[in-house]
Each structure stands twice: as structure tokens, then as C-alpha cells.
Specification:
It is built from 8 helices and 7 strands, in the order βαβαβαβαβαβααβα. Helix content is about 45%, strand content about 15%. The radius of gyration is 17 Å and the shape is globular. The termini are far apart. The protein is α/β, with parallel strands linked by helices. A 7-stranded parallel β-sheet has the order 3-2-1-4-5-6-7, sandwiched between helices. It has helices at about 20-30, 40-55, 70-85, 105-135, 155-175, 200-210, 220-230, 245-250, and strands spanning about 10-15, 35-40, 60-65, 90, 140-145, 180-190, 240-245. The chain has one domain (about 10-245): 3-Layer(aba) Sandwich (Rossmann fold).
């Protein structure tokens, strides 16, 4: 397999200032793609893009709200004006607002829906329109979660959005396959990132309840994502790939 298997590809990845999104950007760029790295935090986006550029990848930062329709279109326009096309869109941005169902606040509910669902839906729409007009096909990928498959305490709203993204990937097969655009989702399980390392018990707890004995690394998740974005997966669409070390097979609670 060529180390530059994404040469001549142009990608947008949202929510990519750190963690899984950053690693997807990094691997795409080092694989030859031109990457637009988005994060709502401008300093984080700039730092992340700069790090990838130092490693030899072509990556530019675009700071903004990935759920804002005007900004979504700006990212697509940046891809087409700067690099001449858009061939990959990864809707990775999402927020997690924990809360008991019986007291969950309306504002939290609609914020989770707006970012996780609205941002993903309309990035896919804008990217698909660009890909259709180009006539070159493309890849769209959603970031779901194991919480879209198994119940997780205090994550009713979040889990709803993740299950919905997988159904969206399946539904878009009908509308986007005629344009050679594939649409898939990844569903990560427990993953060690900058956020989870703040919890000293996280790795120990998830290692004890994950059949393979550890939570995922960001590379574990990114490797699966890159396969679905690659030419090798050109006949795979409408699918959701769980990457969880076997957790959903047994599903013990971390509590």
C-alpha cells in the first residue's frame, strides 16, 4: 500500500484541534492529502495545523463553529478555491453534555442536537453538492459512538445523536451513490485522548472492562477512519464500523 495513498485528495475535518480528529488530519496529510483542519478554538486549530505542517503535511487551520451553516459553506469554498476541489469530508465535531434524563435541560438538548446532528448533516450536504458538481465522487464520514449502540448513563441526548448519524449514513446511500460518493460512520469506544487523560481512573477502569484489555488510542480510531476514506473502501457505503476493543459485545458499565 502506498504511503501517499491520499495524494491529490482534499479533505475537511471538523473538531480536529486535538484527539481523534487531529490524528485523522495528521494521517491524511502525511498520506498526501491537502487538509483543512477545523476547530472552534482558534489557538488550538492553528497549533494543530502548524504541528502537521512541521511534519511535512499540507494542512491549514479554519477556526469556527462547525454547526454554523455559513461557516460550513466557507470551509467548502476554501477547499475548492485553495485546492481546486473537495473529495473528503469528515464530520467529527461533537459535544458531550452529560445529564440525568429527568432533569436534562432544554438548552443542553438543543445544543447537542445542533452540533452533533446539524453540523454533521449540513457539512455532508455542502460537501456532497461540491463533489456532485465536480463529478469526481468523494468520501463522507461521520463520527458516531458506541453510545449509539449501547445505553450509557446520563448520555440519552448524546446517544440519540450518535445513533442518528449512523442512520443518516445509511439513508444517504440512496441519494449520493449515483454521484460515486460513499457515506460511512465510525463508532469509537473508550479512547485515550487529551480530555480523558484528565481523569486518572479512566484508563484503569476501561482497561478492566474492555475485552482487549485497554481503551483505544487515537491511532486505532484514525486507522479505521482512513480505511473508509481510502480507495480501498470504494465499494463500502452506508456502513458503521465499531472500534471498541470488543466492549459492545459485553457492555459492562464503567460506573
Amino acid at each position: 500500500m502506498s504511503l501517499k495513498r491520499f495524494e491529490d485528495q482534499v479533505a475537511i475535518v471538523t473538531g480536529a484541534g486535538q484527539g481523534i480528529g487531529f490524528e485523522i488530519c495528521r494521517q491524511l496529510a502525511l498520506g498526501g492529502a491537502s487538509v483543512i483542519l477545523n476547530d472552534v478554538n482558534e489557538a488550538m486549530a492553528t497549533t494543530a495545523a502548524g504541528q502537521i505542517s512541521k511534519e511535512g503535511g499540507q494542512c491549514i487551520a479554519t477556526a469556527g463553529d462547525a454547526a454554523d451553516l455559513h461557516f460550513i459553506q466557507q470551509m467548502v469554498d476554501t477547499a475548492t478555491s485553495r485546492f481546486g476541489k473537495l473529495t473528503i469530508a469528515v464530520a467529527n465535531a461533537g459535544i458531550t453534555l452529560f445529564g440525568d434524563f429527568l432533569t436534562y435541560h432544554e438548552s443542553s438538548f438543543y445544543k447537542v442536537m445542533q452540533v452533533n446532528l446539524g453540523g454533521s448533516f449540513f457539512l455532508a450536504q455542502a460537501a456532497a453538492l461540491a463533489m456532485k458538481n465536480q463529478g469526481t465522487g468523494g468520501r463522507i464520514l461521520f463520527t458516531s459512538s458506541v453510545t449509539g449502540h449501547q445505553a450509557h448513563k446520563n448520555l440519552a441526548a448524546y446517544g440519540m445523536t450518535k445513533a442518528a448519524l449512523e442512520m443518516l449514513a445509511k439513508n444517504l446511500v440512496i441519494e449520493l451513490s449515483p454521484f460515486q460518493i460513499t457515506v460511512n460512520a465510525i463508532a469509537p469506544g473508550a479512547t485515550t485522548t487529551e480530555r480523558t487523560t484528565d481523569d486518572p481512573a479512566y484508563e484503569k477502569v476501561w482497561s478492566s472492562i474492555t475485552p482487549l484489555g485497554r481503551p483505544a488510542s487515537v491511532s486505532d480510531i484514525a486507522n479505521a477512519a482512513l480505511f473508509l476514506l481510502s480507495r480501498e473502501a470504494r465499494h463500502i457505503t452506508g456502513q458503521s464500523l465499531i472500534i471498541d476493543g470488543g466492549w459492545t459485545s459485553v457492555s459492562p458499565s464503567p460506573y
